[in-house]
Structure formats: C-alpha cells, structure tokens
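Please go through the sequence and fold tokens given here and tell me how the chain folds. Record follows.
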Amino acid sequence: MTIDLTNRRALVTGSSSGLGRAIALALAKAGAQVGIHYHTEQDAAGAVVAEIRSQGGKAQAFGGDISDAGTVQQLFTELDAAFGGLEILVNNAGMDGRPALCADSDPKTWGKTIAVDLLGPYYCARQALARMLPKKRGVIVQITSVHEFIPWSGYSAYTTAKAGLSMFTKTLAQEVAGSGIRVLAVAPGAIRTPINANVWKNPQGLQDLDRKVAMGRMGEPEEIGQVVAFLASDLASYVTGTTLPVDGGMLLYPDFRHGG
C-alpha cells in the first residue's frame, strides 16, 4: 500500500526541527503541500522548506507564537493566502518546561507550558475546523506523549498538558465525527531528537533510557513521521478519537517483564 496525500494541504506546527521536521518530510513525500511552522527558528524552517523542494515537494514557511490566539489567526490567514485551504493539521509544537517539583514551581513558567502545549493546539484546531467543516473533510493529528499516561516527577505542567490534549482529541473527535473530519493523537516515547540529545549522547543516560523501552532502543523521528502520514491518509479512514502510542513498548513497563 502507498500512502497518498496528493492535493492535500497540511500545516505542521513546530516543524523547523526534530519530530515536526520528520513529520513534515513524511507528509511531503506522500504528496502533501506542507506549511512549515516555526516560532523563532526562521532559518531552520527555511532549510526544511528547501529540503522538501529539492525532493520535488511543495512547502512554505510560516512563523508565529501558537500560544497567542491572535497570532494563530494571522498564521491561518497567511496560510489561506498561500495554500487556499487546509486538509491536515498536525499539532506538534510543544515544550516540556523547566523541571521543578510542584511545590517549587513558578506559576508563570507552569502556565507558559500549558499555553504552548494545550492552548496552542486548541487555537490551531479551532482555526483549522473553520476551514474543514464547510468542506466536510479534514484530519487533525495531535502529538502528545507517553506522558499522557505516565507521570513524570518535576514535569507536572507537561504531563497535565499532554493528558489534557488527549481528552481534547477524544472530545473534538466526538464533536466532528459526523462531519467527515477525523481527530487523532500520536504519543511518542523516547525519540532521538535534538531536544533530548543531552540524554542519548551520554552513554549512561542512553543505557538508562533503553532499559525503559521494551524494544531496547530509542525511536527515530522518521518512525513518528511515517505513522502520522498514515493516520492523515485515507488508509486510516475509519480511525478517529484515539491515541496511538509509538513508543517501542515503553508503556509495557519493561521492568516488570520478569515479574513483580
């Protein structure tokens, strides 16, 4: 089977690097015209656009802070002018925030993580639906995390946002299921990206991380990109309102493989 996204227009938030870049490349490879979104990394976003175009694909960069509703509205206005519509939204942009136990946390820092990781996807989904509902067609994919399921001490804002994004996915899918629009989530596990390079470039850190994964290795960004492209395609036309973990079995709690 071939994933075919020909004539689909997509926006991937936070796609100037890491998971977002891999997702954008996978969508473009499948034939989609892709909006490369960035917050501050304009040059990196331009490099992703150039990479897609060099492979015969179509892409354009768009900037903006997704935690601000007005900026998101302007972003989608620019997308309309460039693409003329939207069939695929991937809410990927996010942050894990500064680690701190709740008792020691800073409310402004905590709130910023919620604003980017939860309110940002809401603002973008709302704008996307304004374009998808009239045509009764579209797919929204939220990038959550295994930490929508697994607590993570010191990162309460991040885990709260990801769990909230999961329920937002389910509720939104329920709301639009009769309108030809699907809403799903992908929950990555330990993926080898620049954001966690301090762990996987450290032999001891990598060994500790690998023990947390049943398959015994980190995932690659491309493995997330391929799954998102599949879910955005008609091959997944009967799938909505659920989270697909792509985690190498981290949610199997491999420490328990030999018993309690």
Remarks:
- The first strand starts at residue 9 and ends at 12.
- Helices lie at 18-29, 42-54, 69-83, 107-132, 156-176, 197-200, 203-211, 221-232.
- Residues 9-256 form a domain with the Rossmann fold fold (CATH 3.40.50.720).
- The CA atoms of residues 40 and 63 lie 8 Å apart.
